[in-house]
Specification:
306 residues, alpha+beta, Uridine Diphospho-n-acetylenolpyruvylglucosamine Reductase, domain 1, globular
């Protein structure tokens, strides 16, 4: 359903410190750099999230909550209703002893940098992940042997009824690219606490630099993508399965399986969401035929594709 002019005006009154725009191209807010317009796009502050969501519930306006857009493929026809971006207006990071408290919109790179500057070790793995803390918590993001579940203390979130709750990480069923939050419709992560360990600043920086070098060497960072496109099948590596199916460099329109790393689908320039999705579907089909393994997208599809 489309948002009415009256609803837009009412929503606008709820935003005083965040940002509010209409007909916003989602290609500007995803790392794939594709996606049609959102009817309404809001980046609320911490105090504005609950009122915005409460109004949308009352008016039965569809809501899509996103973070940094690093794990999204938005349809070419855009997103109806309201997109709520947990972003810059909710990105405060505080360090106290071994604990970092960060709002959900803080980029992982910012949180990792704050940890490094405080000589805290344990979050180096996340420094190069191009996502926000909230999204990383929801999907238990990880890289190079580290995962969010290794460092999370607790998470504060807004539930579908509008209540703000804080739960320990042990109750979130954190596993590979999964958390209980994924099964909680209408839940929005607001803040998380992370516990790290004291370390040596030079060693922390050296390890972060080493991981950054590995990313540059192995990943197609010069093209828009959503990172690893498929989840790692148990006992396999998605990139190896895709390569074994003869799909290195496979192209549909301007979407391509990266020649540098077959686990990445990239936007070669002006690709459409439809091309990327069609390529992912074809990759899944050919890998199934070649190996019998069913690839599962790590990318989340949102909005209208047809």
């Amino acid at each position: 359903m489309k948002v009415t002019i009256e609803q837009i005006d009412n929503l606008k009154t709820l935003i005083t410190t965040g940002s509010f725009v209409t007909k916003e191209p989602m290609a500007c807010h995803t790392t794939f750099r594709v996606g049609g317009e959102a009817d309404v796009y809001i980046e609320p502050s911490m105090d504005e999230v609950a009122p915005v969501l409460a109004y949308c519930r009352k008016e039965e306006i569809p809501v899509t909550v996103i973070g940094n857009g690093s794990n999204l493929l938005v349809g070419d026809k855009g997103i109806r209703g309201v997109v709520v971006c947990i972003g810059k207006a909710m990105s405060d990071v505080r360090v106290e002893d071994e604990v970092i408290t960060a709002e959900a919109g803080a980029l992982l790179s910012k949180v990792a940098a704050a940890a490094r500057d405080a000589s805290l070790t344990g979050m180096e793995f996340a420094a190069g992940i191009p996502g926000s803390l909230g999204g990383a918590v929801v999907m238990n993001a990880g890289a190079y042997g580290g995962e969010m579940k290794d460092i999370l203390v607790d998470v504060t979130y807004l539930n579908a009824e509008g209540d703000i709750l804080t739960v320990p990480a042990s109750e979130l069923d954190l596993s590979y690219r999964h958390s209980a939050i994924m099964e909680m419709p209408g839940c929005v992560v607001l803040q998380a606490r992370i516990r790290l360990a004291h370390g040596e600043l030079e060693a922390i920086q050296a390890y972060m630099s080493e991981l950054a070098s590995k990313r540059r060497e192995k990943q197609p960072l010069n093209y828009p993508s959503a990172g690893s496109t498929f989840k790692r099948p148990e006992g396999y590596f998605a990139g190896k399965l895709i390569e074994d199916a003869g799909l290195r460099g496979f192209t549909m329109g301007n979407a391509q399986v990266s020649e540098k790393h077959c686990g990445f689908v990239i936007n070669r320039g002006d690709a459409t969401a439809a091309e990327i999705r069609a390529l992912m579907d074809e990759v899944t089909r050919r890998v199934r035929e070649n190996s019998g393994v069913e690839l599962v997208p790590e990318v989340r599809f949102v909005g209208e594709f047809e």
